[in-house]
Amino acid sequence: MKSKLPVIILVGIALVGALRGQTGTQTAPPKQAPAAATTTPPAVIQQKIESYLRHLYAWGTNFKVTFGPLRATAISGLYQVSVGVTVENQTDTALFFVSKDGRYLLRGDIEDLNGDPLAEVRKQIALAGSPSKGPVGAKVVLVEYADFQCPSCKQLDTILRSMLPNYPQVRLVFKDYPLVQIHPWAMTAATAGR
After folding, report:
1. Which candidate, 117, 72, 115, 114, places its Cα nearest to that of 97?
2. Strands 170-176 and 140-146
3. Lowest CB count within 10 Å: 8, 150, 154, 173, which one?
4. Phi and psi at residue 51, in whole multiples of 5°?
């Protein structure tokens, strides 16, 4: 009986191989070409977004959802779209990104890691004519936006001015930012300061 066991095992292996259509080596199944990305019509994408958001946030029929146009982004295969929601005379708008096939939706910002994220903000800050302390050609420039009536602004200004003697390479520039909604004399104080 012991001599028949290896023969039975070999016959079993050969039978399994024959049933699989293999001759001892396995070949991988043929690779399928990846499906080409399809572009879904904008109206269908907007309908999918609205349906998804209504379900996610439980928005009833009293919520009106509006869409801006689908716009191309720097990332191929991705649109950006502005979505507005109105209920009881209150409106909020958010920017979303959606894949061109209408499958993926994300909310947030897309940042280009190859660029300077603060370059546009710095271009908008005009320093000419603003009061300052420290060297004009300083490598580090702190721009303080403050309200003369704001207690938090006063604390920050005290801290910044106490630090300046220790950092002669820093320039501090003051910009008026009167919070007139909560400080009724802020604009008057800013004008008087000028």
Report:
1. 72
2. parallel
3. 8
4. -60, -45
